[in-house]
Design goal:
The structure is a homotetramer of 219-residue chains.
Chain A: E1 6-14, H1 24-30, E2 36-37, E3 40-47, H2 53-65, E4 67-75, E5 82-85, E6 87-89, E7 92-93, E8 105-107, E9 116-118, H3 123-132, E10 137-140, H4 147-158, E11 166-172, H5 176-179, H6 190-206
Parallel strand pairs in A: 1-3, 1-4, 4-11, 5-10
Antiparallel strand pairs in A: 2-3, 5-11, 6-9, 7-8
Helix pairs in contact in A: 1-6, 2-4, 3-6
Chain lengths: 219, 219, 219, 219
């Protein structure tokens, strides 16, 4: 990140994991690849569901593209709405192994990093824009402790001294075809998610100061 | 119902209720109005969210159209998948008033009717077809005790001596635009629901004997 | 049931099933065995989690004891409150095998029985009494399609011509010790459940006509 | 905290809030007041549900008592198990006003504090001990953004340079009497919670190095 960020937006999606054959996060960002939003070119990149290697790939893509905005997207099977993540925490605690079989428990992501980073995205303004457009969205107070949080924390750690580049993380529900195999599970079609991400990118590129909207949790 | 049923399928949707400005059940069935499925013409009709009047309108439509298949569709805000209802029970117990302000408590729908009717639809075959098509669906063991169950019970009561006509009820989730106003609520787009209903109608018109698939609940 | 019912209350609980090592329904009713409530002696009996055999045991106990009130109690792992069941339906649809390995799918419980029976208990009055006593309780619109519903339906079928005997079914949550093995699962201690059942029995023995309290479900 | 910590454990509970007439966190810690656990005297203190004032009261109690262990306890209405909180974040975002009417949105708790602090408690060892004792418990990845998180963050901030003193936060479910007013809500009796806290305190006083047990969340 020695160079000036250019008019590129990096969106990342993940490989399938946990027994799934697809990952809607990749489908959703891939659909936006090559589009232009607010004068910025969208580039979609794929990340493996692996502790460590996911961050290597992410940092490589950032180095190569020098984007001015990075939004990493991941699947949150069981959640019902697009989740704008507020905070990444400095711990890996894997309930299930990653795609290489690694299962770290209570290990820091960055040995000397702080306990957490807040998102660099204007998530309240994004929330308002998505809801106004009829797209179900919510603020999430935790991105978990698996590869998604790992990538989110690693992203914010990589950008900690690069104030010109905004970054953050968005969780999305199962696609309907996945939910069809999980009785009772909620879902959103990739097209709805793509519309939501398009809007989220536009807000992140144009809203300097975040909106002041209560969207916290009592616990 | 003195005449022979003809090659018509009646689909009903409801008016908005409970503070909503639309009802996705009407959007979903209206989209199919006029289509032809398995040689049958689809006719969509609108029902009020009113104890009593909803059934008058339903019986009128059945009398007028003499359909060979009737599927009533209703909104189940909070459910995540298309719910194929198994059973209608002979009781109104309204947690909230209907659109005229009526709020019956523990009153029978048909004074001399049986405690319940099972659906006339091959819901297990429908379930299998929907899931195979990647559309999230489930069997539901209760349609509640509000206007949806009222219409479902009234439908089965009206058809009790008309074995040539199949009938049943399907609950659907909020549309995404509704869920955008209900933090955390699941949703399905009307287009996915319409695809699901199209498939459900095709199965109901062609599958004589229901499939034998375990889809019960331990409680 | 040729004899007059006497001043006995039969409470039944179940054997463990589904991998559990205990069943809180048995613990809860066993704790009341031998007590006297409103001049009636409580007798607790144990039922196997088996389609068929559970009903044989239940009918035998009814024949032997000639109770004036029968409440069957079962575990509903995942539910959070004491569930007063409204209706039993005439179908077995087992998601998991019973304790003998039997797994009926969409088979009637009573070949010539009606689709459903409503409970014989004053469940709204019971609900009000439990809540007033600070015991979490709710009306449930479905008892599922497993052995609990099987026993509930069989009970009401056995009592269909015996108006002097009241019967019904109550589902209860996991005990805390069970929930400790199910991350996130709700529970209630057997002592709270026993207090609730004691109260429920007292109401069933003294309230002739049920209360009129809205406690239905919109779906 | 200029003095050496002595053999005292400070447990705090909260005032009622959000329309409740009691707060089970206060009932649970009050029950332990004056007990001795592992040679330490338990002192229970009450905190107001107020941004700011809650922390003033907490710091005062710490100054006065010089405890070697501080566990703050709060109500998480809707959760089903005892929640051992992993992390406190540096933000107030109040969905509902506190008991003085204050409703901060996205304001830092400590102006120059880090984004988050991890708990100082051996929560995995506590989790194992609670489950082994048959008490339902779980690790929570978020304490929300309301007064509970405010107190948790403020506690860890106050203890940041005092390695001899362990601190952390535990969320607990509604008491049954509260859940009786919230249809479907889970609960745990104060006696079960008190047993759990007693055990948690004993573990925190005796286990130096936390256990290595996977208890994370994929999202």
């Amino acid at each position: 990140m020695s160079e000036m960020p250019n008019r590129t937006v990096l969106l990342t999606g993940f490989a399938p994991f946990g027994g799934e054959t697809c990952n809607p996060s990749w489908d959703a960002v891939q659909a936006l690849d090559g589009e232009t939003i607010e004068g910025h070119r969208i580039v979609a990149r794929w990340l493996p569901v692996e502790f460590g290697a996911s961050l290597v790939a992410l940092r490589q893509a950032i180095h190569e593209l020098a984007p001015s905005l990075v939004i990493c997207v991941g699947q949150a099977g069981g959640r019902a709405q697009i989740s704008l993540e507020r905070v990444a925490i400095n711990v890996d605690d894997a309930r299930i192994p990653d795609n290489t079989g690694a299962q770290p428990v209570d290990e820091p992501i960055a040995q000397d990093g702080p306990a957490a980073y807040f998102t660099g995205l204007p998530i309240k303004a994004m929330l308002a824009a998505l809801r106004a457009a009829g797209i179900p969205a919510e603020i999430s107070q935790t991105a978990g402790t698996y590869v998604c949080n790992h990538v989110f924390y690693g992203l914010m750690h990589a950008l900690r001294n690069v104030p010109a580049v905004r970054g953050g993380f968005v969780h999305i529900p199962y696609a309907p075809a996945q939910a069809a195999l999980h009785p009772g599970a909620p879902s959103l079609p990739p097209s709805v998610v793509s519309d939501g991400l398009r809007l989220a990118v536009a807000v992140a590129l144009t809203v300097e100061r975040d909106a002041r909207i209560a969207a916290g949790a009592t616990h």
